């Protein structure tokens, strides 16, 4: 299955998002709504963007005690969302509770386990008491997520090959930290890769924000990335 593109709608206001979304209608399928926009505008904004014809990836990175996460998944289930994130660091019991709630409230929803944030490197992990390289922690949490019933993971593109070689082939791998070669090293992402390289490594989806959002022509930028993916 070819790799697909998800727009990270990381902008301050719905007014700023509106013209970008209008330009991208019919150009790409997926939009990721994260904490910034969800906390500002809530479930109705999810419905609004879905109503424009986009498939919604709701990126809330749930992380709490098992019962609370399960209830949150049940509450979110009726929304028109296709993907939802939770932190694998919450543990197996939490993930199993989330899967049970997802099966009950929205059987088609893809729960994605977040392994190690792409903003973190070995130094950042050491600060929170995790020894070793990021890829070791990704492998550990990825295995725990698969064993707990999750059908997808969010990881750095640099760890995709590792996960593809060690986890079931059906797992969907969603990779942020994607930057065109001309923009490498331009922001706070530390573990990054180009779109074509991520696709060749085995990413199921790539997540791209600023290279599209800040482009003079967002639709042209999205088309260029999609062409690169399809060419890979």
Q: Give the number of domains.
A: 1
Shape: globular
State the secondary-structure class: alpha/beta
Radius of gyration: 17 Å
How do the SSEs run, as a string of H and E? EHEHHEHEHEHHEHEHEHH
And the CATH topology? TIM Barrel
> Mean of residue pLDDT?
92
Percent strand: 15-25%
Major β-sheet strand ordering = 1-2-3-4-5-6-7-8
Largest sheet: 8 strands, parallel, barrel
Which parts are unreliable, with pLDDT below 50 for 5 consecutive residues or more? none
Helix content: 40-55%
Number of strands: 8
* CATH superfamily (homologous) name: Aldolase class I
Q: How many angstroms does the end-to-end distance come to?
A: 12 Å
The number of helical segments is 11
| CATH architecture call | Alpha-Beta Barrel
If you had to describe this structure to a student in words, what would you say it looks like?
The chain has 232 residues and is of the alpha/beta class. It has a single domain (4-231), classed as TIM Barrel (Alpha-Beta Barrel), CATH 3.20.20. The protein is 45% helix and 17% strand. It contains eleven helices and eight strands. Helix 5 links the parallel strand 4 and strand 5 (110-114). The mean pLDDT is 92.
In short:
The chain has helices spanning 14-24, 35-41, 43-51, 66-76, 92-105, 122-127, 134-147, 160-166, 195-201, 210-213, 218-231; strands at residues 4-8, 30-34, 55-62, 83-87, 110-114, 152-154, 172-175, 205-208.
């Amino acid at each position: 299955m070819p790799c697909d593109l998800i727009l990270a709608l990381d902008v301050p206001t719905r007014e700023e998002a509106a013209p970008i979304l209008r330009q991208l209608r019919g150009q790409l399928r997926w939009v990721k709504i994260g904490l910034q926009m969800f906390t500002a505008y809530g479930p109705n904004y999810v419905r609004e963007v879905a109503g424009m014809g986009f498939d919604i990836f709701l990126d809330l990175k749930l992380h709490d005690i098992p019962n609370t996460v399960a209830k949150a998944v049940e509450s979110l289930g009726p929304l028109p969302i296709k993907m939802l994130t939770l932190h694998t660091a919450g543990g197996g019991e939490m993930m199993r509770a989330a899967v049970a709630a997802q099966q009950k409230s929205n059987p088609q929803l893809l729960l994605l386990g977040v392994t190690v944030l792409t903003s973190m490197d070995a130094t950042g992990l050491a600060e929170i008491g995790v020894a070793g390289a990021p890829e070791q922690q990704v492998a550990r949490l990825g295995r725990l997520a698969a064993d707990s019933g999750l059908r997808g993971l969010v990881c750095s593109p640099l760890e995709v090959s590792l996960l593809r070689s060690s986890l079931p082939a059906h797992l969907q791998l969603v990779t942020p930290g994607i930057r065109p070669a001309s923009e490498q090293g331009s922001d706070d992402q530390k573990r990054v890769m180009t779109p074509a390289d991520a696709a060749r490594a085995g990413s199921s989806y790539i997540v791209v924000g600023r290279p599209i959002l800040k482009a003079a022509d967002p639709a042209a930028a999205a088309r260029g990335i999609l062409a690169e993916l399809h060419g890979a």
